[in-house]
Structures are given as structure tokens and as C-alpha cells.
Amino acid sequence: MRNNNNLQQHSRSIALYSVYQNKLLPSTPPYCGFRAAFFSLISLLFIITIFIPASANQAYNKDTVTINDIESGNLLIETEQVGQYQLAPRIDTDVEIDITGLIARVNVTQHFTNPSSEWINGIYVFPLPENAAVDHMNMKIGERIIEGKIKERLQAKKIYEQAKLEGKKASLIEQQRPNIFTNSVANIGPNEKVSVSIQYQQTLSYDQGHFSIRFPMVVGIRYIPGTQKVGGFNDLGWALNTNEVPDASSITPPVTESGQGHDNPVSIRISLETGFPLANIESHYHTINKQFDGENKYYIQLENNVTSANRDFVLSWRPQTTYEPQAALFTQDKEDERYGLLMLVPPEVDWNKQQTISKEMIYVIDTSGSMSGESMQQAKKALLLGLSQLKSEDWFNIIQFNSDIEAFSKQALPARENNIDLAQAYVHSLYANGGTEITPALNLALSNVSNSERIRQVVFLTDGSVGNEKQLFTIIKNKLNHSRLFTVGIGSAPNSYFMSEAASLGRGTYTYIGKIEEVQEKMTQLFLKLNHPILRDIEMIWENDIAIDYWPNPIHDLYIGEPLMISLKLPKDQKQLIIKGHTNQANWSIKLPITNGGEATGLNVLWARNKIQSLSQKISYGANAEEIKQAITSLGLEHHIVTKHTSLVAVDVTPSKPINYNSKDSAIASKKPHGWNMNIPGQPLHHIPQAATPAQVNILLGTLLLIAGFMLRKYVIS
Question: What are the tens digits of pLDDT across the range 560-585?
């Protein structure tokens, strides 16, 4: 926008100058031709100087460059000086994932490189899994390593800012959302490289017989609703903070196209130790190489070593049939406490003996601009498949939303053939455009609940690219009633924090579809869950009715093929665990003997992370926000975890930046998600092509000025 405004101002200036010229010097016969030539030349000089990127002095400013200084494609950041740019800092990432049993330990090393001639502070907004427990950080400068310390968030920020002011190198890891973090690195010198390693732990996913792990690589472009305000705007994100998303500027990093400038390359290496033979290993969106050492241990890496950070990496594996787990328990003794991680696949229920109950299916489809391209194709195909799965006793409706909402029908319709045909034609007509206003769509989908005995299930198909998650969670809690909410994440980089948390609050499940070829398989699995009664009201107690300290709490409803995955504290004097729940027609329970289980490390961190997530959910249920904040802060400090209220900070004791130099904050661009067709918001960075050399421009200017001077001298003498 600034370039367009400048161009308009330049055009106005030229037009005004022409008017002024005609009024000041009316045409007269003796000097008509000369004046016309003279002022044409002056106008030409004026136009040239307006569009020259910088003066000779600016062109050789040590802190900035011009277009003509660039010998190859680069990302440049505009400065306040017209035609002057700053080289953008670069980020390269190495990921090492060590998987043992049900647990993954991940080390993410971010290499910050400053290609400019000035001191900068790099700020990188990056994603992690929504269930990641970030507990360690190291900053490497040359051969020296500085270990990060956990502090209360405001204190950590103060320490970082003071170090930045004193010219010391420092790194600050902050959580903006459970799946969005920022890494701020202070005082990176000209042409210098600083590496920051972040470590986290997470549990694996298990569904329908498959284990899987996902490593997100790009922060999806968020829709920011609400009234804009200036307060707190840090000038680094492309969005202003609003009343609905008060930290919008912290979760909207600048975005560039893949293949434009530096591609934020990511390398991934995985060590997979299962303890049992596998039927298959599959990378869903990236080509990999696999090696097997003969001891049930596999080594996996990207085929081309690196990939552009523009879509999530997902790896899944399936045990051979005879090794499919029914139960697994891992334990850890730490500081007089015993922590456990339990996975239990509930026994199969004879569904043929269950009474068939009709369903009321409400399909909600996101048709906002962020869904354009491949995402819209996936969503429409999934919705059409959903309509084809309806039974004659079912009822249904469709709601589409972007900046506005629209329902296919004022109320749910019976799944008769003519209604299905009309609905399919309606789906084919949908296209992506506008904003992602999920709030009215949720309100409508969870309203108009009939008093019938039909099971009401809401299937929400979206990429979840919004920043007002907290507001949406409150709506789900307040309006869910007897409905169940199932989320389907669409696209190469959906907002999995929103999708998984919404499904948990909605007592449903989250399904991720990353490419159109997966729609049939993933939606078929979802319909299998939708068509069977749920196991609800699950609780865990010891055999003598003593309460258990377990998380998540409450346990969300379970569906066919899903396991219980629980972090808990284990009293050393208890031997048997009782798990109870209800189906639609009967009670269900199982007694599980507690042994020492397999040994594992970091279970205390997983327990604390799950407890923090459950405490955060309680805010949506009206819990005291200040008490929850204090509890989360205490857990973060005790277990050395990055949370909303605690951060990791590392500071080098020795100043490295000369005191007479200033360092500038510089955001590092994310890549546009793969398959995303919508225009990039903000456009704060530019890919600058090669242009004419400064010497050529100076020669042209010099020649024109010489001619102008000669003509002016001749005119004055005459």
C-alpha cells in the first residue's frame, strides 16, 4: 500500500507541476519552443529523480541496500527511506525426533543468520504440536552453549530486554498459543550465525490401529476478527491487535511464497524404536528414506535432506496384527513421586446388540478465502461423502460460513433421496471467499436443537485459521448441550490447537485431512465412529474408591478404535485401577492391575502439560482466571515447562555488540501454506529482482543535468 500511495503522490506532484508551469510561463512566440524543450527536460529530470530508488549517498549506506545492490533474488524489508531496504534475517531448522514406546523426544535447532551489515534482533514465529511440553532451550554462539532458564513470563521478557539493551546475545522462547511459539534472538551481528535448540516431549497419537506423529512447519495465516485498536501493536505482525484477538500482532508473522528468497529449509531425522515389528511406515506428505537395523529400530529422514517449511510433516506406522496393543503402562520415579502414562484400548462392544438410533447430522463447511484451492476441493468432497453415508432414518442440514453464514435449510431435513440430491447440488455450487467468521456458524450449528431422541452430531470442516480461539471455546461450552462436535481439519497446515481443543470440549473427535487422496479413508473412519454409540462419563478410581490425580480430567468421550491416553500419579501402595464409563444402553468397566510398567523419562513433564491443558479448559467453564494463572505458573516453574505464563530465557554474560550501535527488531517470514491460493496479507517483505546498476543511472542523470545546465545558461545569457 505504501508503494501505491507514493506512486499516487508522485503522479499528483507531476500534474500540479505541469499546471504551475503553464500558469507561470504562458506561451509567447519568441521563447515558445525553447521553454517547451527546457521544461520538458526539467519534468523528465523530476520524474527520473522521483523513481530513482535512492541517492548516491543512500545507495552506499552501510545499514541498507538498494534494489541495484542485489545481485540475485533476495527478500528485502522496506525502511522509512524510499528505495532503501534491509536484508531479511534467515532461518534454517534441523529436527531430530527420538521415538520410544508411546513417547517422542524432539530437538528443534533453529539457525539464525544475519546477512545484513547491521546488528539485528531476529523474531521468529513458529508452530509446534498443540500437546508439546517445551522444557529445555540452549543458545549456541560459536563453541559456547548457554542454557535457558524457566522464569515467569514478564520476568523473562524483562531479562531479555535488558540483555538486548546491554548488547548481550539472548534468546527468549514464549508461548502465544499451545501450538504457536516465538523465538526472539537479540544482537545478532553482521553476517553472524546464532543457533537456538528447543526440546520438547509429546505422546504419540493412536487411532484405528495406527500410531502417528505430526511435526507442523508453518503457522497458518489467521483470520483476525474484532475491532482494531493500536494498543500493544508491535509492528512485527501483519495484523493489528483487536478486542477479540488482543495478541494478533504476535501470531501473524510476515508471509512469503515458497520459492521466494530463503525457503526456511527444514531437515528431519527420526529414530523410531517400537519394540515390536511393523506392518508399514508411511510419510503422508513428504518423500522419505528408511533404514532398519534388525532390532525393531528404524531410522528415517527426508529423501532430499531438507524441505520447504510450508506444510505439516506426518509419519504413521502400524504394528503387525499380532502385536496390536491392548494396554501399555510406563512409569517414572522422580523426587518421591511416581508418574505414569497409560494407554488402554477399551474392549470391543457387540454393536449388533445395540439398538439403532437415528442421527441428526449438521454439516458445517468453511467457505472463507483461506480455504481456496486444494482445501476447498477436499472439504467439498468430504461433505459429499458425508451426505452419501446418511441412512433413511437420519436427518441433516448444511451450514456454510465465510464473512456471512447461510443454511441449506431453515431446519434439519429427513435424508430422503430428493433432499440429498438438492443438498449435493448445493455443495457443488460452493466456493471460497471472504473472512473466517466461525462465531455465528458455531452459534447456529449448536442452536435449533429438537426434542427428538435422535443423536445430534455436528461435523465442522475447516482449516481453523482464526485467532479468537478462546471466544470460540466458550461458545462450545455454553451451547453444546446434548450435541457432539466433530472437527475435520482441512489443508496443509490447519490450526490443530483449535481443532483438537474444540473436539475435546465438544465431546467428539478431530480428523486431519492433508490432501484430497485421503478424504475417502479418513471420512470413512469418521463415519465408523459416528455410527456407533459412544463411551461417555469415563472416570478412573483405585479399588478402594480413592480419587486419582490424572489428566486430562475430565476424560473426553471415546469412539470405536480410540484408546485412553492418560497421565497420572501412582500411589505406591495401590495395586489395581478401575476404569468406568457408559454406553447408550449399558454400564462398562474394567479392572487393570498396576505393575511397575516399562521405565520412561519425562513423564512428570507430560503429566504437568496435560494438567495445564485441563486447567486452561476450566476457564471456559467459568473458573477464576487469576487462580488458574497462578496454578499454571507454579506447574511451569516446578516442571521447567514453557506455558502461557512462563518462558525460557538464555543470556550470554559477555556483551558482543558495540555500545555505539543500535540493533533493530526484524521479523522472519513464514512461508505460505502449500496449496493456499488466497493473497498473502500485509505483503511486508519483497522479492527484489535485478535492476539497472547505480553507475548506469548516475551516468544518465549526469548527462541530463549537463544538458539542462547548458540550456539554462544559454537562456539566461540571451
Answer: 888 889 999 988 777 788 888 887 66
- The per-residue pLDDT for range 118-159, each reduced to its tens digit, is 899 999 999 999 999 999 999 999 889 999 999 999 999 999
CA atoms of 601 and 334, how far apart (whole Å): 9
**Span 374-380, mean pLDDT?**
93
Write out the three cell numbers for 368.
472463507
Listed residue (341, 89, 274) closest to 193, CA to CA: 89
More confident call, 229 vs 683? 229
Residue 669: C-alpha distances to residues 88, 253, 400 (Å) = 8, 6, 32
For 385, phi then psi, to 5°, come to: -65, -40
d(CA 240, CA 224): 8
Cell of 304: 532430499
Pairing of strands 664-668, 180-188: unpaired
> What pLDDT is stored for residue 690 in this prediction?
33
Residue carrying C-alpha cell 545481485: 71
Q: 272-276: which pairs have CB atoms within 8 A and are 24 or more residues apart?
A: 272/99, 272/297, 272/298, 272/299, 272/300, 272/317, 273/99, 273/100, 273/101, 273/297, 273/298, 274/99, 274/101, 274/211, 274/298, 274/317, 274/319, 275/101, 276/319, 276/320, 276/323
Name residues whose C-beta falls within 8 Å of residue 141's C-beta, 6 or more positions apart in sequence. Answer: 169, 194, 652, 656
Q: What is the pLDDT of residues 261-276, one digit of tens each?
A: 678 899 999 999 988 8
Q: What is the DSSP letter of 65?
A: B
Omega within 30 of 0 (cis) for the link into 533: no
Residue partners of 108: CB distance under 8 A and separation at least 6 = 93, 94, 95, 128, 197, 198, 199, 200
Per-residue DSSP letters for 627-649? HHHHHHHHHHHHHT---SSEEEE
pLDDT of residue 132: 96
Tell which phi-psi region holds residue 252, choosing left (phi > 0), alpha (psi between -120 and 50) or beta: beta
Q: What pLDDT, in 10s, does the model give residues 43-92?
A: 555 544 444 443 333 333 445 667 666 554 455 656 667 776 767 788 99
CA-CA distance, 529 to 503, in Å (whole number)?
A: 13
Tell me the mean pLDDT in the region 627-636. Answer: 96
The three three-digit cell numbers of residue 115, written as one number:
546477512
> Which domains does the chain possess?
2-83+694-717 (no CATH), 87-320+644-655 (2.60.40), 321-349+535-632 (2.60.40), 358-530 (3.40.50.410)
Residue at grid coordinates 526440546: 199
Put simply, whether the predicted model's pTM sits higher than 0.85 gets the answer no
C-alpha cell, 631: 496454578
Q: Which residue shows C-alpha cell 527484489?
A: 688
Question: What is the total residue count of the chain?
Answer: 718
Q: Which helix (H) or strand (E) holds 479?
A: helix 469-479
Contacts of 373 (CB under 8 A, 6+ apart): 432, 675, 676, 677, 678
Measured at the alpha carbon of residue 282, what is the angle toward residues 279 and 283, in degrees to the nearest 5? 165
Per-residue pLDDT at 10 exceeds 70 = no
Q: CA 164 to CA 167: how far, in whole Å?
A: 5
Is residue 150 within 8 A of residue 646, CB to CB? The reply is yes
Pick from 346, 329, 398: nearest CA to 564:
346
What are 637-660's pLDDT values in tens digits? Answer: 999 999 999 999 999 998 999 988
